[in-house]
């Protein structure tokens, strides 16, 4: 067994604890309670989300529950939205690569909210149903090419160890630019953070989105 195979096996053997299912703990802020500034900030997200979903601008009129939850902290909302938009829509990684990392982070955190939304974003970015199912199964799936497997390994190592080891880094360095290498932990960190917020505050996944696959289906 090669060193890379051992790395995959060791990561895959680490059990991901199921996130505790919690009822809604923080009520997403309703529109009548929005200040003019919050209303402007949240309204501006509709076109961005529609674009990530592969829809035409101005076709979305509902605000994501997680953003309505973050709106309880208005001093953070604006800077956060600017950062989130830059990372999701102006990053150096392809949208497909970014969504592969985001979905693996959501799976590792067992965040139903983040998984459900990023399935939609991932399909718009070019990932198919089988690839999305395999993201939950992890980097040990034989179908993965080196490119995708290296990203999944990076996501798993960042989740379990908060760093990427030398072996996986060498794999990534052969495939990605330095700017993209810097972006990889940012993407995993961003969606790990949002998973923490969603899981801890009990953000409800809106209807019409796919729920987390069961571990028995992996």
Question: What report would you give on this structure?
Answer:
It contains eleven helices and no strands. The chain has 218 residues and is mainly alpha-helical. It has a single domain, classed as AhpD-like (Up-down Bundle), CATH 1.20.1290. Helix 6 runs antiparallel to helix 7, helix 6 (95-109) packs parallel to helix 11 and helix 9 (146-161) packs antiparallel against helix 10 (166-173). The chain starts with a helix and ends in a 17-residue tail after the last helix.
Summarize the structure in short.
The chain is mainly alpha-helical and 218 residues long. It is 61% helix and 0% strand.
Secondary structure topology:
Elements: H1 3-12, H2 36-43, H3 45-52, H4 65-70, H5 74-89, H6 95-109, H7 112-125, H8 129-137, H9 146-161, H10 166-173, H11 178-201
Helix pairs in contact: 6-7, 6-9, 6-11, 9-10, 9-11
Q: Report the biggest beta sheet as strand number plus sense, adding barrel if it closes.
A: none
3D shape: globular
Text of the CATH class: Mainly Alpha
CATH superfamily: AhpD-like
Number of separate strands: 0
CATH fold group? AhpD-like
**What is the mean pLDDT?**
90
Strand percentage lies at: under 5%
Structural class: mainly alpha
Can you name the CATH architecture?
Up-down Bundle
Total helices: the number is 11
Q: Over the alpha carbons, how many angstroms does the gyration radius reach?
A: 17 Å
Assembly type: single chain
Order of helices and strands: HHHHHHHHHHH
| Poorly predicted runs | 12-18
Distance separating the two termini: 23 Å
What percent of the residues sit in helical stretches (DSSP H or I)?
55-70%
Total discrete domains: 1
